[in-house]
Amino acid sequence: MNESFFSAPQLKRDPLGCASNNVTRRIWLILLVLAGCVGGERRPVVIHADTVTPEPPADTADTMVDPGGFYFLTDSVPPWAADIDVLELTGLYFISVPHDTTITPPDTAKFLYHILLKSDTGGPPPPDFHLTQLVFHGRHFKFVTAAMDSVSYDFDGYFRRFSKLRPEDVALSGRLRKLRAGRTVAEGDVRFRYFEGE
Questions:
Q1: pLDDT band for position 110 (50/70/90)?
Q2: Domain containing 9: what range?
């Protein structure tokens, strides 16, 4: 009788002890997880500047814009691009901002989309690099030129201003590349100021 009296509480104590240990373990586990979330090391997200040109904040709610005009390199012009006179986009009229738009200028209008080089006084006129394809995705803008004497250009950037463009505004920025026989020979970040023309 004494054995049963003393053994009964012992039988009840074991399960309670196990349960208590399980609860304690769970509490410690939760605390460790929370400590890891709050105090753990946070690694910064690295965005490489040479992969994607960051989009500037929107300056318009318009759905149709008219970026046609002349664009001149400004600020720190890379030495290899110093012979570029102007990027002409006078063939552009209205672009639908929310949608992807690809323009392949026909031969009859290619003189409205090209890169003009500076000409030397008395020398032969430099070649025009006609744009063979223009791609718009909102204000994201890319173009590719035809090759002249194995040299061509391409560009990937953004219209910094897309509406109510004013003379001398820095309206376009991004990555310009110069290629020879399809291989990159020079590249750099550039900015273009806008001129509507006369």
A1: confident
A2: 1-43
